Amino acid sequence: MNFKFVLNIIGRILLIIAIFMMTIIPWVIYFHENSILPAIEESIAIPLIIGLILILFTKRYKKEIGPKEAYIVASSAWIIMGIAGSLPFWLSHTTSSFVDALFESISGFTTTGSSILADIEAAPKSVLYWRSLTHWIGGMGIIVLTVAIFPSLRIASYRLFSSESSGIDSSKLKPKTSSMAKRLWGIYIALTAIMTVILMMGGVNFYESLCHAFASIATGGFSTKNASAGFYSPFVQYVMMFFMLVSGINFALHYGLLKGRFKSVINNVELRVYLGIIFFVGSCISLTLYFKQGLPFEQAFRDSFFQVISIITATGFASADYLQWNQFCWLLIFLLMFVGACVGSTGGGIKVIRHVVAFKAISRVFNQILHPHHVKSIQINKTSISEDKVQAIVTFIFIYLLIFFVGGMCLLATGLDPASAFSASITCMGGIGPGLGTVGPASNFAHLTDVAKIILPILMIIGRLEVLSFLVMFTPSFWKEYKN
Question: PANTHER family annotated for this entry (predicted)?
Fold first, then answer.
């Protein structure tokens, strides 16, 4: 094990977090929140000093990275970010305990958006800025992990530029990983800037526009208002809908559009299914709200599609309390929590492409029953998927659902009712935010026990790391098979 490499990366992560934290200070000054300035300074100093010590102590480390180091770095990064990011919440007394602060921080960095803040608007605005910024850092972190770490481990489900997931020939992209990451970061930053400007054009001040742009582009869901997106005008809600929708799309497709590869983008199977699900479910709920609950058509359309896009992209913003809708709408919302966004996006969940492959695999089984001698491979974007990849995807979905069930059972044991327990489990695994029951869009997670507040962040990290890359470290065969 190359421990110096792991410690060096952890040091760099802490240093980056400290640098991002420094941007809180201008907001402290602007909002005249001088009483929490010492807490913010201490929050910056702790990761900064520890990070510098780790970097200096391990400055002579081997550059080689093996599977063990990569998995440990990928998994520990979220834990380290969560602990360091909790300091502004805890030291400023925005949260009443370290467990609450850790919950809020991990929820932010994993772009989950579940919150324990009972009165968001009562919290210091500078801390709320940091709360939204954790989304943006975490969303960018997903892109870095996807582009830089997992392809080197030959994990097919993480290959952002593979023809199976994006429909774009990876050979047409820049060969260096750093070049690819820079271009994706450029798109990420550009989308954030554009959304901020458009929200300001809609009458939202710069501070709130920036915070909501952070949360929308990262598909996070933290708002600076108790009413979330419901506080804002229909224009603002439509803007948020559009950028949530765009952020749930594979970032390689954004790159393809910039390169003029319109045909490959339009013909991308995952994108078409993703948009199709949104249109179908959104239309069903819209018609239900219009005919059954008597809402004006425009409001029914807006409320429906906003919630559908927010759930499927795992953003978690709410413009309406969908628990006030009828049970048919509840069922559709709950099922959407298992879908997820596109692979290679900042969105969470199982991911649309996995459902497509699993559906094709099931269809092939029935076809082989009817036609035993007919052998047919599974194709995505006119590219055949190997049997190993198909098996890996089906296994992933099975394990994902198993962990969801176990998580729900554990939450039941803490005293939650079934609807709240199982929806909290899937919403945190999928990085969605609100659930059903007592953790619905009009409520929060503050009433949960400390045990539940520890279980849920674990589910957030497992879900954000897409299950297998986290669990593989706990298998004896992994440590025996992969040796430096």
Answer: TRK SYSTEM POTASSIUM UPTAKE PROTEIN TRKG-RELATED
